[in-house]
Fold this protein.
Amino acid sequence: QRLGADYETLKKINPRLVYCTLSGYGQEGAYADWPGQEINAQGMSGINALTSDKEGDPAALYFTVADNYSAACVVIAIQAALMARDRTGRGQSVDISITEAGIHLINQASVGYLRDGRITKRGGGPTLSHLPCKDGKYLTSAAGAETPFWNRFCEIIGRPQYENMFPQPMDKRA
């Protein structure tokens, strides 16, 4: 904006302009001027509320999940704006926040919190987790997320006694 390259200025020159901004916290609000950094986006979005170290303390993910996902959101938003421009002849400004992208990544946990006040346990739960195996390796499986998948898993591993063991499987939640 300081340089006269903001959307409001440029759309006067080209009303078909699709203009995208990517920042840590969005273009407006109390944090708009704060620098956007991956670790802060993980913390402020709630990603770190779900990850833990061996002691159960919050742990940062050592890859740029919020940065990378926000970049994907940029591409999707620009594509949508281009499609809208093809229909309307008008461009638009798109604003993507790294922190909001992080919130989107933890959508299942945030829905439970926003709807019911339920706070998801750090480190995952019994339905979506890393299961230790006898050989010291881990099995990752989301089979417990829905009863039919879990029951099929129990059948395959020869443990039918564990079928239907989750009192509130995800496929039954409102």
Remarks:
- The radius of gyration is 22 Å.
- The first helix runs from residue 7 to 13.
- The chain has a mean pLDDT of 84.
- The longest strand covers residues 18-23.
